[in-house]
Write a structure and sequence with these properties.
Blueprint lengths: L1 H24 L3 H13 L3 H10 L2 H4 L10 H19 L9 H11 L4 E10 L1 H13 L4 E6 L6 H15 L3 E7 L8 H9 L3 E5 L7 H6 L5 E5 L3 E5 L19 E2 L1 E7 L2 H15 L23 E8 L7 H12 L3 E5 L6 H13 L3 E7 L5 H17 L2 E5 L3 E2 L3 E4 L3 E5 L5 H6 L2 E7 L1 H16 L1 E3 L2 H4 L4 H11 L6
Parallel strand pairs: 2-3, 3-4, 7-13, 10-11, 11-12
Antiparallel strand pairs: 1-8, 1-9, 2-5, 5-6, 6-8, 9-16, 10-14, 12-17, 14-15, 15-16
Helix pairs in contact: 1-2, 2-3, 6-12, 7-8, 12-13, 14-18
């Protein structure tokens, strides 16, 4: 009996210690309460779960950028971009209502505001991949690729064949893939690239001794930089299922959005790639002028103003989350959101409710059928709350909508890899492109309304009258939303 009593005391002290750790390390009271309840009511499993996926690694600074050693060159490039950013910020090119947004991203994420860009909107894989293949064929100096999902299929091999040929021609080619998202690539695929001279590295290789933690923190970015002047960013991974022109291989219609950026904004995409590469690779990628060509000279053809927002466990703040909050707060007329996983949390919900109650036109496009029942149930609880205040929520029925976009007042467009959920805000490495002005915003608004033609608006009166047990289930699952 004495051993049992001692074991109970020891376990009680351990639970108290872990709870204190949760309180100290978890900023969100909602997440802290969820962890504590799990730890108390599910013995041992709750503690294992918390230490596997609940530690605040941003606060603990587990990740290091391992950025380059050429300090004079790095400072020179940074000073050039910061001076350029300040000149744009004071030129009046960015509307006054977005000045706070651009300053926040600059100061919190060190991402400069850039003009002299040409942005091309790419809808679905059938628009993205032809542009990508053409841009890769034109590469002269280097190609840097970073993807969450890269598959060994028709699409993946069409890109790989160009990478191999370019590497053999003397172009520097670096290929980084998430070890979890791209788990199906296989050793033969990677060896074929490496034998041709392509440098490859998995992001945060999954090890058995850190399986849960490493599965939880993934690189969700989709970035390509070509010669330091052309960049691709958005939601479309490297896979056949993102293409609707391969009907036999992919019967499900896939609706997604990507951007091709030519100009100065690619400098920050390059910086992100270097940080991620140097975190994973034993051979650091050093600063070189060829990676950061001077693109600050005005070009009348390239007149889009772009800023890159990026965040992850390596950033001091959840930059993407805060940037979305600021963007919503700056809206004067309309907010149009497309998101496949809509679990925004309390702060974004409050911002959206304020916008709705202020008379703004708030429309949200979501999948008709989610690929996760748990995520769908949690998201539905948020729909219920927004519908009570008058939001217009549309379910896309043509296929699966995977785009992550936001348009504010036809003057601000956001396209990227980040979903509107806890995982993208807190756990994953993500990147969004923010484009100021009405050119891209108007295009995205038109596309948004085209998508609404393939959607059905949720009838609030019917939705809110659903059976009580469904509403209770959704609210219960919502408590788990920090873990989804």
């Amino acid at each position: 009996m004495s051993w049992i009593l001692l074991a109970e005391i020891a376990y009680g002290l351990l639970v108290i210690f872990v709870i204190l750790r949760v309180l100290y390390d978890t900023r969100s009271s909602t997440k802290a309460l969820a962890y504590i309840l799990f730890i108390v009511f599910v013995p041992f499993v709750g503690m294992i779960f918390y230490f596997s996926v609940g530690i605040n690694y941003r606060k603990r600074k587990l990740y290091s950028k391992k950025i380059v050693d050429d300090e004079p060159l790095r400072k020179s490039i940074k000073e050039r971009m910061n001076t350029y950013s300040e000149s744009i910020g004071t030129s009046g090119l960015v509307a006054g209502s977005y000045q706070n947004l651009s300053k926040f991203i600059l100061h919190s994420g060190s991402s400069p505001l850039t003009a002299n860009n040409q942005v091309k909107l790419l809808i679905n894989g059938e628009e993205k991949f032809p542009e990508l293949l053409k841009a890769l064929e034109n590469a002269k100096s280097h190609i840097h690729i970073e993807y969450y999902i890269y598959e060994n299929d028709i699409t993946g091999n069409s890109v790989a064949n160009i990478l191999i040929r370019k590497a053999q021609e003397g172009v520097e080619v670096r290929f980084m893939y998430d070890d979890f998202g791209s788990h199906g690539l296989g050793k033969a695929f990677i060896k074929r690239l490496e034998d041709a001279g392509v440098q490859t590295i998995p992001f945060y290789r999954i090890r058995w001794y850190a399986l849960a933690n490493r599965l939880n923190y993934r690189n969700h970015r989709k970035i390509i930089i070509i010669d330091g002047t052309v960049g691709f960013v958005g939601g479309i991974n490297m896979s056949d299922k993102y293409r609707n022109d391969l009907k036999k291989e992919n019967p499900l219609f896939w609706r997604d959005t990507h951007l091709m950026i030519t100009g100065a904004a690619t400098s920050y995409l390059q910086y992100l790639f270097m940080c991620d590469w140097n975190f994973c690779s034993p051979i650091c990628l050093e600063y070189d002028k060829k990676y950061f060509p001077d693109q600050t000279q005005h070009d009348s053809i390239k007149n889009d103003i772009v800023q890159i927002a990026a965040s992850g466990p390596d950033s001091k703040q959840p930059v993407i989350f805060y940037s979305l909050l600021e963007a919503i707060g700056s809206a004067k007329n309309s907010i149009y959101i497309t998101s496949p996983y809509f679990i925004p949390g309390e702060s974004l919900m409050d911002a959206l409710i304020i916008a709705i109650q202020s008379g703004l036109d708030v429309k949200i496009l979501i999948p008709g059928i989610s690929d996760s029942k748990m995520v769908n149930a949690a998201a539905s609880a948020y729909y219920t709350e927004l519908l009570q205040y008058g939001a217009k929520i549309y379910q896309y029925n043509k296929g699966f909508v995977h785009a992550k976009t936001m348009v504010i007042d036809d003057n601000l467009a956001i396209v990227g890899s980040a979903n509107m959920d806890y995982r993208s805000f807190d756990l994953n490495f993500e990147v969004n492109a923010i484009v100021y002005g009405n050119s891209l915003a108007k295009q995205l608004t038109d596309v948004f309304y085209d998508d609404l033609e393939e959607s059905e608006m949720i009838d609030a009166s019917v939705w809110l009258q659903r059976p009580k047990y469904i509403l209770l289930w959704e609210r219960a699952v919502r408590l788990l939303s920090p873990f989804l």
